[in-house]
Amino acid sequence: MRALVSLSRLARRIPASLAAVRSPAPLLLRHIHTDAPPPPPQDPPPFVSRILETEPSLAPSAEAEPEPDPFLDEFLARFVAAFRPELAAAFPDYDRAVLDEMLRLVADAVMCRITGADPGPDAAELSDDLWAAVWKVSASVQEAMRRDQVRADLRHYLHCDEVKEMTRFAVDVGIRGSMLRELRFKWAREKLDEVEFYRSLDDMRAKAEATSNPAPAPVPRLTALPKRKGEVKFTMYGLDMSDPKWAEVAEREAEAEAHFVPQEAKPVEGKAKKAEERLLSIDPRRGDPVPPMEEWKEEQRPKRVDWMALLERVKARNVELYLKVAEILLAEESFEANIRDYSKLIDLHAKANHVEGAEIILGKMKEKGIAPDILTSITLVHMYSKAGNLDRAKEAFDFIRSEGFKPDLKLISSMIKCYISHGKPGEADDLLKSMKDMDIKATREMYTDVIRAYAQQGMVNPAQSALRAMHMSGIESTPELFTMSIEAYGRIGEPENACGLFQHMRRSGHEPDDSSIAGVVAAFMKKNQLDQALLWLLSLEKEGLKPGVKTNLVLLDWLSMLQLVLEAEQLVQQIKQLGEEPIEIHVFLADMYAKSRQEEKARRSLKILEEKKKLLKADQFERIIRGLLDGGFSDEANKYYKMMKSCGFEPSETIEVGVKASLRMRGGPRR
């Protein structure tokens, strides 16, 4: 109490304007008040050269703004918080301003005592009793800070790997509850003691090293520059950098860096922002993006980097609009379009199957005098191959090979499919053979496509040659390849070779499917050897191989051509029992019933075919029309003739002449 009374007497002698006159330490005020008062105005420090200064005191002092000490800040905050209640209890009649000033005087004295700074002539002196009270509060604050630090360290070491491992072991052996909690805190405390022990050893070693190796004397500061005589000579790695040519090198480096270092686009604001919003809201199929682009250009005055940023935003909103805007920008001078811009647009059009759009970009590219490069040509090959334009695809592919570029597997596969789609399996096979010269191994799918194309055209020998080439390249045959070869023999009518290949397929360990059996039966049908075909099918049934839908359809086609109506109807019932009713059944039945002049049954099948006319092919239309003409159903033949044309098929000359002749003989169609 005596200490606080002496502090009160000291505070009464403080002038009212002391807080405004003194310049309090900003570090202390941060803990007493929430907002520190603004510092008094000071004259700017005089400019001092860092090279020509002669005394260290002339340089700006680094002690004017000391680095913050977190430990000291926390100590002062806790000290003020702990000392304020005692002052408030001792002087309940004093307002907050007086108490704050008394706290500031005490804290100033504590700061000077801790840091060893000079308190100055205007500092207040504290009595011994007041110092005793201050030390008592300081000791309690330090003890609280020490306890908090220990708790923080324990919380840290409770989650270290060693404590976690021991905790898991304790849980595994059955320790639970409060005992496990006590063990965790015990292990964390032991870990903390171990760390503090080694930390003290490090401190002792650092002190010993500092004692044995004192710090070197500071390097004397430069007080003046030597007088220069002649030209400056600067050498780096043996090169005279004072030569004027290095200035030119630096300029060229800056120019080259401008091309490689990406520039930042200018921010879009004001009218340019509104013009961009109108551009993004345009419908690419109906609207015109040129007016908002012109307005955006006038306001933004863009460079290439600004145009590219705009294109990215347009692409994120609408890809079709992006294609239209990018096409317009190809003619813009500030955009500085290059070959990559053209190739990107061509690639996007190709992926979207827009062949016309890609050709427009290609035409603009050639108008600018830019020849397509390898990447553009590769894109064109894939696009034209997918679109079925063999001439343009071949032109681009030949350009790639003439430039010495080695085509990859995907490029060759596109060309092979393009040749096959145009009915040229021979050229596809030649390209397949040339892959050996390019050190590219063909895949099984490539060989399969070529063999299938040969088989569909009945070209058995080239198909077998491609099959042997596939075996020589280390690729084994699959059941699909055997089936295609058997079907090829069936198209040309060679039952002996078809049966031999069928047996070879079974000896190779492949189970024949319904398509391979149907191929052999088709070969017998070409030779009109019905008895041999039936005997062969009976032998397969004895071995457990029963014909499926495809084989029965071949037999139904054969029986309908032979006008074996009863046998064909029995076979139709067998096919329906298998759970399927292909449209080919009614094509064969309509042809058979029309030729045999069974009008009611023929009209029944024709009605079903009329409902499924979109599934009919050109050859099926012609077979129906031919059967109707042979049976004398000229009106129905004319009806299906018109139906064939409406479905997009062009009738053959024989069918067209037959329909017109039948109408003339009957005096025109009936009304």
Automatic annotation (TrEMBL):
Xref: PROSITE patterns: PPR
Coiled coil: 561-619
Alphabetized Pfam families for the sequence: PPR, PPR_3
Keywords (A to Z) from UniProt: Coiled coil, Repeat, Transit peptide
Signal sequence annotation: none
Gene3D superfamilies, sorted: Tetratricopeptide repeat domain
Residue spans of the PPR repeats: 338-372, 373-407, 408-442, 478-512
InterPro entries referenced in this protein's UniProt entry, alphabetically: PPR_rpt, TPR-like_helical_dom_sf
PANTHER family, alphabetized: OS02G0611400 PROTEIN, OS07G0661900 PROTEIN
Protein name: Pentacotripeptide-repeat region of PRORP domain-containing protein
